[in-house]
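Obj: model holo form, ligand = 3,4-dihydroxybenzoic acid.
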Amino acid sequence: MARKTITTQVAIMGAGPAGLMLSHLLYKAGIESTVIEVRSREEIAATVRAGILEHGSVNLLVDSGVSDRVLRDGDEHQGIELRFNGESHHIDFSDLVGESVYLYAQTEVFKDLAERRELDGGDVRYSCSNTQASEFAGRPVVQFTDSEGQEFELQADFLVGADGSRSHCRFQVPEADRKWYFHEYPFAWFGILTEAPKSSKELIYANSEHGFALISQRSDDVQRMYFQCDPKENVGEWDDDRIWAEFRRRVNGNGFELKEGPVIDKMVLPFRSFVHAPMRHGNLFLAGDAAHTVPPTGAKGLNLALNDVKVLFEGLDNYFKSGSTSLLDSYSDRALERVWKAQHFSYWMTTMLHHVPGADEFGRARQLGELNSVISSRHGRAYLAEAYTGWPSK
Ligand code: DHB
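Output (holo structure tokens):
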């Protein structure tokens, strides 16, 4: 079969939430896009990811007409519990900053976006292979083979790399033209899904002498929980009894008891901070996990990705309407400002709540001093609340 040449205004690599949301916003503005994805739609929908949406992310989904299912099937949370020294302390977002977040799994966000793109006739090609992007100084080109084995050459005015943490696009940027910032942490999260009722109205972020634990939720009957573990931990060595014993010693006490049930999924989540800067190389723009990774404490990953595409959309829309490149030129700086705030917040929450292997008595006592300074001061609680619910966008 001969290779077919196709053209579009914006080529997007990656049909995760970032790529699909950008494609949707462009469609609404009358701008054409084609989305190329190597995974199948089913595989993306089955990947368990985080579950907290900032109010700005909720507004973007609802106001742009993706879906209002988040308002019906999601759960609005007005705060979280910080638990340490065996006691829980409520951080009341609505009182402190007048905002809330929604618990709504990323897989649901993906399903809403994929369905909206399908209903609107969007050009989203799942299960592609042999993808290769090039020509960023002029009109970018993406070569790929579709799910039927047909080879294509896609030419576009711009290419957006929204192709996740193992981004193909990111690796096409020459080393001399970018900087990579890395931070590694000496731990990971052991994540489970369990068939159990909710243990608490809100999420519990627990610091204990045995390590961090997070009690989150998915529905009335299925809950999501995590505990800090070694990055090399092997899930096969953990049966239900061992898992629950670990949660109990980190979270239970002073009259609080987790509601337990069968563990239906378990996995180890890697942990690191990463930033690729700038987020632009010629006519290639990076968005979401392709450009940055945050540790999961604070659930910023998906929210940052949605903010990137909101800012990038403004630049592309402005260019196609007026020919002006000024908002495209400021994309990287504007997006990175929020990325670095989120990097700091995720790092801060992580180091405040986790047990650092090898920490001495001073380190442990200092950590409790830090937690006490947050919960005992309205200003301390308000910093956490503003960052967690999402800084106002500029
Ligand atoms: C979830 C994940 C997070 O990283 C977090 O900070 C809060 C909630 C979740 O999967 O529900």
